[in-house]
Amino acid sequence: MKILWVNPGFLHPTTRGGQIRTLETLKRLHQRHEIHYAGLDFPPSNGIVRSSEYCSKVYAVPHSVPRKFGPRFWWHAVASASTGLPLTVLRYRSRALLHQVEALTRREGFDAVVCDFLASAENIPEPANSVLFQHNVESMIWKRHMEHAPTPWHRAFSRAQYKRILHYEGDVCRTAKKVIAVSEADAREMHSLYGASRIACVPTGVDIEYFKPPCGIQHTHDLVFLGAMDWRPNIDGVQWFVSSVLPLIRARRPDVSLAVVGRHGVPERDSRIHLTGTVDDVRPYLWRSAVSIVPLRIGGGTRLKIYEAMAARIPVVSTSVGAEGLDVRDGENIAIADSPRHFAERCLALLDDSRERQRMAANAWEMVSACYSWEVISRKFERLLA
Question: In angstroms, rounded to a whole number, what is the distance separating the alpha carbons of residues 220 and 146?
Answer without folding.
Answer: 37
